[in-house]
Amino acid sequence: MAGISVTLEGDNIQLAFQKGEQSTAVVMDPHAARSLVKAVSQLLTAIGEGGENGDETPEELVEVTSSTIDVGTDEHGLAVVGLQAGLMPPFLLRLKDDEARHIATSLLEILNSPRDVRTSHGDH
User: Fold this and answer.
1) What secondary structure does DSSP assign to the chain, as a single string?
2) pTM of the shown model
3) What are 16-66's pLDDT values in tens digits?
């Protein structure tokens, strides 16, 4: 199982992941951290994972407002997606290979399904 730790580094927040011998850390300013929390919350809602109590109100989805969505790799070869959503500042999502594959596969499944099937499942 992967280990996740969250620590303060000055006025910034460090989010570190470790799985086996691999580890990755990301340092974010508070605004970027809030954007990440909201994005993860929305992804959990989209896959049907509610809060622990089950009574959390899902946050409103935020539309992508970037004129482009940039996809590339970072200096370590990890997939990076850059975009802007709503009033949030532009942000980057750094993904491990398995995370990027999961997102790509899921999006292809959604795009390949007929519109009426997508609508019956909440238009996700």
Assistant:
1) --EEEEEEETTEEEEEEEETTEEEEEEE-HHHHHHHHHHHHHHHHHTT---SSS-PPPPPP--B--S--EEEE-TTS-EEEEE-BTTSPPEEEEE-HHHHHHHHHHHHHHHHS-HHHHHHTT--
2) 0.45
3) 888 878 888 888 888 888 888 888 878 877 787 765 544 444 456 778 887
